[in-house]
């Protein structure tokens, strides 16, 4: 039979702050989260009246000298749960005598004894100071923006009044030419009617959106007694209607009618132009989406490799195509050799992407099946490209990881005209694995490529990349590599995912070429690791919590770190189940002082922070992750995405 839960331990380890008061409002117990939140020790709180430990600000007492929080406690003692969604209660610092502004979300719950009478009050408290202050700041900014917007609107109207003398047809023609949307073009005609012809009301409608007569109906409903209409016709085809009117009777001259008809005709040409552009935009957007999907399908997430924490990023520079010839790969061969490769086929279009797919697949197949060193594998790839008629010219670096009889690891690599790999060592120094350059793939050497070796101790990180990360028109490649080396050393303390994101963000912001960055950090072989698929059901979060708790226990992770990791994996898995698609993949790596979690699902949309609703039950998942994780981020893992986070 399972043992009954230790309720005292449960109370102590609750992630939210809780306080227990007796009927005299004396502190009976607090949990760890409460002492941390209020910066007090348990001894400073337990056994003391709560308002003696946290005296209220006299300025916030009511006419009877009672604070709203005390009244809330009394209501709970009377038997009713009392919630204070947002309460200002400034905390007195006993060391300085100064009060610190704090806002709280509080729930006071009665706890009856065996006889049914309330014996204690359980308080749940959450610090919402930052939220309240940010909301107040946002309201001030919105007010300022409203005032500025009103000022801008007043200025715009004054400028339009001064432009009434401009010739009517010239005005409408110029403004319609500048219109970039149908709504803008219709607004031009409405403004034209008001400013040039002093109309009280005007309406423009398209027949594929509204039935005939809609425009005239709008003007008539506005109380106009004089009405004029003009059809919007292009090449004999009626596209819409233009109507304007005046509240007072008005005699319209032939010139006025001619101006209205000319404006309607010009608007018709604008409709044709905008519809043609809409079709082009839709086609371009579909092409971009298809190209990006193709590119990411060619660059899937690297396989899980024992002894390595691997992550990769791809960034396209050619916005017109969204595809290119850069690639990365990581896999284990048939004999168990860990293999990493990065390369670049010349070009930034669909052809380059197709050739890249062929080269990458050939290299993967050759390396998997043929037990040879890195240089021989590249030579075999060269021969295969020639014999199979693959007309590709590419740079590449191929690297394998080896473990000696004494357990030490090293990397062996061969380089075909590619930028040199970097090794970030555990002490924070960075080695550049530069050797004499050798010929590109596609240029058969006939002499055999060189193989080099370098130590790869636990904690070291390999960086493989393409030239888009380091090459710019205004500086030599060597300067770019030196910059990458310096930034890597400066960011050596980061996890692989965080280091990858930072390097791409800082060095590839103005990249003129596609960028690939592959990082592989050496971790103890066979160390605590978990990779499991969870069903997209309500049980997934509970299963994830159990797996993390058990893994942390076996690895000797401190309780506080394990509790934080358990809470965060629950939030991330729940978010994937509720908002994602398909099974949820949970990956867990545990080091001596770090828990690395990855939660993946098949939905590509990244999670979005929602504004905190103080009275809502949920909606705080990303806020918790942002507040408690040492580092976290989201990466694209086709067909979906991965949320990763580190807890120290």
TrEMBL record:
<dbReference type="InterPro" id="IPR035965">
    <property type="entry name" value="PAS-like_dom_sf"/>
</dbReference>
<keyword id="KW-0378">Hydrolase</keyword>
<dbReference type="GO" id="GO:0016791">
    <property type="term" value="F:phosphatase activity"/>
</dbReference>
<dbReference type="InterPro" id="IPR001932">
    <property type="entry name" value="PPM-type_phosphatase-like_dom"/>
</dbReference>
<protein>
    <submittedName>
        <fullName>PAS domain S-box-containing protein</fullName>
    </submittedName>
</protein>
<dbReference type="InterPro" id="IPR052016">
    <property type="entry name" value="Bact_Sigma-Reg"/>
</dbReference>
<dbReference type="InterPro" id="IPR000014">
    <property type="entry name" value="PAS"/>
</dbReference>
<dbReference type="Pfam" id="PF08448">
    <property type="entry name" value="PAS_4"/>
</dbReference>
<dbReference type="InterPro" id="IPR036890">
    <property type="entry name" value="HATPase_C_sf"/>
</dbReference>
<dbReference type="InterPro" id="IPR003594">
    <property type="entry name" value="HATPase_dom"/>
</dbReference>
<dbReference type="InterPro" id="IPR036457">
    <property type="entry name" value="PPM-type-like_dom_sf"/>
</dbReference>
<feature type="domain" description="PAS">
    <location>
        <begin position="3"/>
        <end position="57"/>
    </location>
</feature>
<dbReference type="InterPro" id="IPR013656">
    <property type="entry name" value="PAS_4"/>
</dbReference>
<dbReference type="Pfam" id="PF13581">
    <property type="entry name" value="HATPase_c_2"/>
</dbReference>
<dbReference type="Pfam" id="PF07228">
    <property type="entry name" value="SpoIIE"/>
</dbReference>
């Amino acid at each position: 039979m399972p043992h009954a839960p230790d309720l005292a331990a449960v109370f102590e380890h609750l992630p939210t702050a809780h306080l227990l008061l007796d009927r005299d409002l004396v502190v009976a117990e607090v949990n760890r989260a409460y002492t941390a939140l209020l910066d007090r020790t348990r001894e400073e709180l337990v056994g003391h009246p709560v308002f003696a430990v946290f005296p209220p600000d006299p300025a916030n007492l009511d006419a009877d000298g009672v604070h709203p929080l005390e009244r809330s406690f009394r209501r709970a003692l009377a038997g009713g749960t009392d919630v204070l969604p947002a309460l200002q209660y400034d905390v007195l610092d006993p060391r300085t005598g100064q009060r610190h502004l704090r806002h709280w979300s509080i729930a006071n719950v009665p706890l009856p004894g065996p006889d049914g009478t309330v014996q204690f009050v359980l308080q749940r408290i959450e610090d919402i100071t930052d939220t309240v202050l940010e909301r107040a700041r946002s309201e001030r900014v919105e007010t300022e923006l409203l005032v500025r917007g009103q000022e801008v609107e007043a200025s715009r109207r004054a400028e339009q009044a001064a432009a009434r003398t401009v010739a009517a047809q010239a005005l409408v023609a110029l403004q319609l030419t500048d219109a970039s949307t149908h709504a803008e073009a219709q607004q031009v005609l409405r403004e034209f009617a008001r400013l040039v012809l002093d109309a009280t009301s005007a309406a423009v409608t398209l027949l594929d959106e509204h039935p005939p007569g809609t425009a005239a109906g709008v003007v008539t409903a506005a109380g106009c007694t004089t009405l004029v209409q003009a059809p919007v016709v292009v090449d004999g085809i009626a596209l819409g209607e233009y109507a304007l009117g005046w509240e007072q009777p008005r005699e319209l001259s032939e010139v006025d009618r001619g101006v209205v008809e000319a404006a309607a005709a010009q608007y018709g040409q604008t409709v044709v132009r905008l519809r043609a552009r809409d079709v082009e935009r839709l086609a371009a957007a579909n092409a971009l989406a298809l190209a990006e999907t193709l590119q990411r399908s060619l660059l899937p997430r690297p396989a899980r490799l024992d002894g390595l924490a691997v992550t990769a990023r791809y960034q396209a520079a050619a916005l017109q195509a969204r595809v290119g010839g850069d690639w990365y790969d990581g896999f284990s061969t048939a004999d168990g050799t860990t293999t990493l490769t990065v390369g670049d086929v010349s070009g930034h279009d669909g052809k380059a992407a197709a050739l890249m797919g062929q080269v990458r697949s050939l290299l993967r197949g050759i390396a998997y099946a043929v037990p040879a060193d890195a240089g021989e594998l590249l030579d075999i790839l060269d021969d295969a490209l020639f014999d199979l008629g693959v007309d590709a010219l590419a740079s590449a670096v191929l690297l394998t990881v080896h473990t000696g009889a004494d357990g030490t690891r090293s990397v062996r690599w061969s380089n075909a005209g590619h930028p040199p790999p970097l090794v970030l060592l555990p002490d924070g120094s960075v080695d550049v694995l530069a050797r004499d350059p050798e010929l590109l793939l596609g240029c058969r050497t006939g002499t055999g490529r060189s193989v080099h070796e370098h130590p790869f101790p636990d904690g070291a990180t390999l960086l493989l990349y393409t030239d888009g990360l380091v090459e710019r028109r205004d500086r030599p490649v060597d300067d770019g590599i030196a910059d990458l080396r310096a930034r890597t050393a400066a960011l050596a303390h980061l996890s692989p995912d965080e280091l990858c994101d930072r390097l791409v963000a800082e060095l590839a912001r103005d990249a003129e070429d596609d960028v690939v960055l592959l990082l592989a950090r050496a971790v103890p072989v066979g160390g605590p690791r978990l990779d499991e698929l969870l069903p997209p059901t309500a049980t997934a979060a509970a299963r994830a919590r159990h797996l993390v708790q058990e893994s942390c226990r076996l690895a000797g992770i401190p309780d506080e770190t394990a509790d934080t990791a358990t809470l965060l994996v629950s939030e991330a898995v729940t978010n994937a189940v509720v908002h994602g698609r398909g099974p949820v993949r949970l990956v867990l790596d545990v080091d001596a002082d770090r828990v690395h979690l990855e939660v993946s699902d098949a939905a590509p949309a990244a999670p979005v922070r929602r504004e905190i609703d103080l009275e809502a039950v949920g909606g705080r998942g990303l806020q918790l992750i942002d507040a408690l994780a040492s580092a976290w981020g989201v990466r694209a893992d086709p067909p979906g995405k991965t949320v990763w986070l580190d807890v120290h």
